Amino acid sequence: MSDAERERALEVLREGAALGRLSHDTFLRRMELALTARRRHELAALTADLEPEKRWSRRLFSTVGAVSGFGVKLRRAWQAEKLPKLLLPAPGTYALRIGRDPANGLRLSHDTVSRVHAELTHQGGLWVLRDLGSTNGTAVNGRRVVGAAVVQAGDQVSFGHMSFCLATR
Q1: Beta-bridge partner residues of 121
Q2: For 16-63, what is each residue's pLDDT tens digit?
Q3: Can you give the C-alpha Rg of the chain in angstroms?
Q4: What distance in Å separates the CA atoms of residue 30 and residue 12, rounded to the nearest whole number?
Q5: What element of type H or E holds 74?
Q6: Any idea where the FHA domain is (predicted)?
Q7: Which of the residue ranges 88-97, 126-135, 143-152, 153-162 would you say has the lowest mean pLDDT?
Q8: Which of 89, 145, 135, 83 is nearest to 110 (CA)?
């Protein structure tokens, strides 16, 4: 067995530890065994689970990740185009209350919308959407609002099962 073979095994172990594929204790134990190994099959056993992916495999997995991420973005954009627009009020005007109650600035007559569901305000140059203890929740871009969330034009907002795309005039 040559020093080059031993060095290659040590490099594979170092890379495996750096990528988080080996715990620190396992790395130290395998390094010790690699330095004392006398036969090639002993080195092969130490690195069998750490062999680097082939170049084409890395490219394939990278491409699949990029394509699947693109699908999510495309689906979101497609849905946003189909959604009715909710125009943000002019900054500094008033807080827009949203719900089923006729006294709200935006009345939504849907069973999943609470009487006083949410409130949209302009604070310090930012739009803030606050859930007012609704039963079926308020969401921004698919994530439920707990308390309040900063929103902007282009965001998808949902009140119960009613969804809108925020827009400016």
Answers
A1: 128
A2: 888 788 888 999 999 999 999 999 999 999 988 886 656 776 677 677
A3: 28
A4: 11
A5: helix 55-82
A6: 96-145
A7: 88-97
A8: 135
Residues in the chain: 169
| DSSP per-residue string spanning 2-64 | -HHHHHHHHHHHHHHHHTTSS-HHHHHHHHHHHHH--SHHHHHHHHGGGPPPPHHHHHHHHHH
Eight-class DSSP state of 109: -
Tokens standing for residue 119: 């409130």
How many C-beta atoms surround the C-beta of residue 22 within 10 A? 20
Query: CA quadruple 66, 68, 73, 74: dihedral positive or negative?
Result: positive
pLDDT at 168 over 90: no
CA torsion through residues 108, 109, 112, 115, sign: positive
- Provide the token pair at 79: 């849905």
Phi first, then psi, for residue 76 (nearest 5°) are -65, -45
**What's at 115, amino acid-wise?**
R
**Residue with the two structure tokens 């600035």:** 105
- With contact defined as beta carbons under 8 Å apart, do 129 and 145 qualify? yes
